[in-house]
TrEMBL record:
Organism: Pseudacidovorax intermedius
PANTHER family, per database record: ARAC-FAMILY TRANSCRIPTIONAL REGULATOR, HTH-TYPE TRANSCRIPTIONAL REGULATOR RV1931C
Record bears the keyword Transferase: no
Stored PROSITE patterns: HTH_ARAC_FAMILY_2
Annotated protein name in UniProt: AraC family transcriptional regulator with amidase-like domain
Length: 345
């Protein structure tokens, strides 16, 4: 019988005023994978977890919680680290001038199998020059900083993470969006290492109903910030949720907002960072997902109520935004009486 593979070392950096959840969220995913492997499958723990900091002293996070590093990063053998994660947080701006940290990241990149960031930790990878020419994302509030300070980075505003195990580039250096997206990233890493059944088992253990795909948008259209400079656009956004089953062409929206179509389009891009059509599609699919989760309507009914018309259009939008069809989504949340099974899986 072949010997069990040695555990992979997952290391996470610490620095003053990093966000505690950027560290503990992803690390808990790997710790839960160990628990599932040991207690559920009677296998050796697949991961060894490690916290690294500039000194071995406790590090105060932005929440005031102090985390104890296992060792100073200068003492760590980087060539034994499988995956190195860089958290974000309020302290990220000060750390952009920390030459010792930036040098560590540059030295680590060719040595570790995977190097990734959580939230605004992407700014540190970018400052070290490791994201030039690469796809990258970050917390939505940091995207402009990333674009302006690092124009050679291909900023992806509408995704949860850029990890792609099938890509030599995006499977080696990658980033994730704000805070809890680090958990989605960690689950994707577990799936790449141990398979989808293990990742789903970890998600269930953590009471996460659905592992979100990396390409899903960072935040809900239903939670879009209220426009500050265009009051008529704010009124339009309040009006839209009750009109999803109606004609929402650009001309109809422009008439409702009392703005020329081109002016309306520019206002959407300026205030919300997207086009009217993409905003409405996201609003429709999020409303449809809520209706499916309630289990009180069929796929055909939801498609009609939310303005998709045919269930096939709803199915395509679900796959685009969630990576699964509406029937699979409904089953995860308790199921509905689906009357279009063949076209909705």
């Amino acid at each position: 019988m072949p010997a069990a593979a040695p555990p992979r070392t997952i290391a996470c950096l610490l620095y003053a005023d990093c966000m505690s959840l950027d560290v503990t969220g992803p690390m808990q995913v790997f710790a839960t994978a160990n628990d599932v492997a040991q207690h559920g499958h009677r296998r050796r723990a697949p991961y060894r977890l490690q916290l690294l900091a500039e000194t071995p002293a406790p590090v105060a996070t932005s929440a005031g919680i102090r985390l104890m590093p296992d060792e100073a990063w200068s003492a760590s053998a980087l060539d034994t680290v499988d995956t190195l994660l860089v958290p974000g947080g309020d302290g990220v701006i000060a750390q952009r001038d920390n030459m010792a940290l930036l040098d560590l990241l540059r030295r680590a990149e060719p040595l570790v199998r995977r190097l990734g960031s959580v939230c605004s930790g992407a700014l540190l990878l970018a400052e070290a020059g490791l994201l030039d020419g690469r796809r990258a994302t970050s917390h939505w509030s940091r995207l402009d900083q990333l674009r302006e300070r690092h124009p050679d980075v291909q900023v992806e505003p509408d995704c949860l993470h850029t990890f792609d195990p099938g890509s030599a580039q995006d499977g080696h250096v990658f980033t994730s969006a704000g805070v809890t997206a680090g958990i989605d990233l960690a689950l994707a890493l577990v799936e790449a290492d141990l398979g989808r059944p293990m990742a789903l088992a970890v998600a269930r253990q953590l009471v996460m109903f659905l592992r979100r795909p990396g390409g899903q948008a960072q935040f809900s259209a239903l939670l879009a910030p209220e426009p500050r400079r265009t009051p008529r656009l704010a009124a339009l956004l309040d009006w839209l949720p009750g009109q999803l089953g109606a004609d929402l062409s650009l001309e109809r929206l422009a008439a409702q907002a009392c703005l020329p179509p081109r002016t309306l389009t520019r206002a959407f891009q300026k205030e919300l960072g997207t086009s009217p059509a993409r905003y409405i599609e996201r609003l429709r699919v999020e409303t449809a997902s809520a209706l499916m989760a309630q289990g009180q309507a069929s796929v055909a009914t939801v498609a009609r109520l939310c303005g998709f018309g045919h269930p096939e259009n709803l199915r395509r939008s679900f796959h685009k935004h969630y990576g699964v069809g509406p029937q699979a989504w409904a089953e995860r949340f308790g199921g509905v009486a689906v009357d279009t099974v063949q076209s909705s899986t």
